[in-house]
Design a protein that fits this description.
Layout: H1 3-28, H2 31-48, H3 55-73, H4 93-107, H5 111-122, H6 127-134, H7 138-155
């Protein structure tokens, strides 16, 4: 393994670790399982010893596969983790309620819709990259996003 490869991967990790973690967290629902999925994905690329042509979608795909494995292997904890993190105690009560309502809205979506929304909005992937991560046509990824977003909007109409 050459130093350039390792350094490139380290820089990529530093710039995307939070996005990849949130994606894995959205898939697994558990902090430790999400961390394990991200670490497993990067370990796999290190073992491979070379950088894939399109590293960003490739890593999201690897994290997805690892997260799905974690989800199958690990029993859910009694308290599910929030994709949106903790709301500080000095925040207004309606912020906490919005967070809960948004989590409820996301939980009603199909796995495909929820995953696509997380990848698009939080991680900033394009529909082309999402299609590569999910191994589906670009139009399918766009449809999942649009359909899921419409469902979330309809459930959160009271916040307008």
């Amino acid at each position: 393994m050459h130093n350039g490869f390792v350094e490139h991967l380290r820089v990529f990790y530093e710039s995307t670790k939070q996005e990849l973690f949130v994606y894995a967290l959205a898939l697994t629902g558990q902090f430790t399982a999400a961390e394990d999925a991200v670490h497993s994905a990067f370990s796999g690329v290190l073992r491979r010893g070379k950088t894939p042509t399109q590293l960003r979608p490739y890593m999201f795909r690897c994290v997805r596969n690892a997260a799905m494995d974690e989800r199958r292997l690990v029993e859910r904890e009694t308290r599910e983790a929030s994709v949106f993190g903790q709301v500080s105690s000095d925040s207004a009560g309606n912020l906490e309620q919005l967070k809960l309502d948004l989590e409820d809205a996301l939980s009603t979506l199909s796995d495909d819709e929820r995953e696509c929304i997380i990848l698009k909005i939080y991680s900033g992937l394009t529909f082309r990259e999402i299609a590569q991560v999910r191994n589906v046509p670009q139009g399918t990824a766009a449809a999942w996003y649009s359909r899921g977003l419409a469902k979330v909007r309809s459930q959160l109409e009271g916040y307008r």
